Amino acid sequence: MWFEGYLEPRVSKRECLCPIMSAEIWGTQLSFAIGLLGVYLGWKGVISRMTGFFDMAGAVKYLLYGIVSGMILAISIDTIILGGINQSSLNILNAVTISLLIALTESSFVLFLLSRKRLIELRGAPPFGWSLGLGIGSMQASILIYRLFVDSNLNSQYSGVGLITIALAFFISICSGLGQALISSWQGSMILDQYRFRPLIFSSIFRAVLILSLTLSIFVPILILINIPAIMYYWPYAQKKWLISGMTPAAKQAYRRTLRQSSKHKNKAASREKGEIIVSDE
Fold first, then answer.
1. DSSP secondary structure letter of residue 123
2. Which of helix, strand or coil describes residue 267?
3. What residues have CB less than 8 Å from 83, skipping those under 6 apart?
4. pLDDT score at 33
5. Cβ atoms < 10 Å from Cβ of 155
6. Distance in angstroms (rounded) separating the CA atoms of residues 169 and 149
7. pLDDT per residue over 179-196, tens digit each?
8. What is the pLDDT of residue 272?
9. Which of 15, 98, 166, 257 is most buried, taking the most CB atoms under 10 A from its CB?
10. Phi, psi of 254 (to 5 degrees)
């Protein structure tokens, strides 16, 4: 009959787009949740242990600075480097050059924030640089993970949400957050020692390697392994030298004593039997 077509249920354009929109929103939330994992690890494992020895409110403020600036820089990486590689319009030489320029911008911004007179007087450049790097790295990781999860035009066989891509996303988040934090903390430590130009150049090179390797890992995941040995190698330097370089000798001694005592209490608590009272030396 002529009216049969009108009796069929009509699906609006909004209802057709609903699954796509919900999938994109879900992928966006997941990508930023994983991207912020580096902030959690870097804060929980480092900054939270220094409560009472540094200005925690200042560290949070610099974390926010890093998140805002990191998003702007992440858009540049996404648009210029990742977009050019994805469309095969960017060769490796141009990619290296652009990565160096973006890394130089990052290092110059870190130098500008950490070399302010008031911050140098407080000797807070290393820990504030650590939190600043966490913010920058988390946003860059979030944008890369978003492209990996959501972008249907990405010319990578690993695009989409799966076990491999989720594992790759975790590695990108950890390497980006901790890598940027290590570089910024080292740069802040060098500022206290009155070295600025040389750390600016070397930190730019390190950041360029980090940016390019993380971006290319979307297409070749094995490249993510370039950053892991470097992070593991420089992690003890950050814990034992760079982050505490802003403390006075008395504060350093108190900080190390606090770490020893907390480790001792933890071991006693783990080995004691229930109901047994822990005897403290204090």
1. T
2. helix
3. none
4. 92
5. 12
6. 9
7. 999 999 999 999 988 899
8. 52
9. 98
10. -65, -35
Q: Enumerate residue ranges in the chain where pLDDT < 70.
A: 1-23, 52, 248-251, 259-282
Check the CA dihedral 101-102-107-110 and report its sign.
Answer: positive
On whether the CB atoms of residues 180 and 136 are closer than 8 A, the answer is yes
Spatial neighbors of 118 by CB under 8 A, at least 6 apart, are none
- Among 213, 247, 254, 243, smallest CA distance to 230 is for 213
Q: Find residue 51's DSSP bridge partners.
A: 54
Domain coordinates in residue numbering, the chain: 35-247
The pLDDT, as a whole number, for residue 2 is 40
CA atoms within 13 A on the CB side of 141: 34
Instruction: Note whether 218 and 77 are within 8 A (CB).
Output: no
Residues 6 or more apart whose Cβ sits within 8 Å of residue 226: 209, 213
41, 170 in Cβ contact below 8 A? no
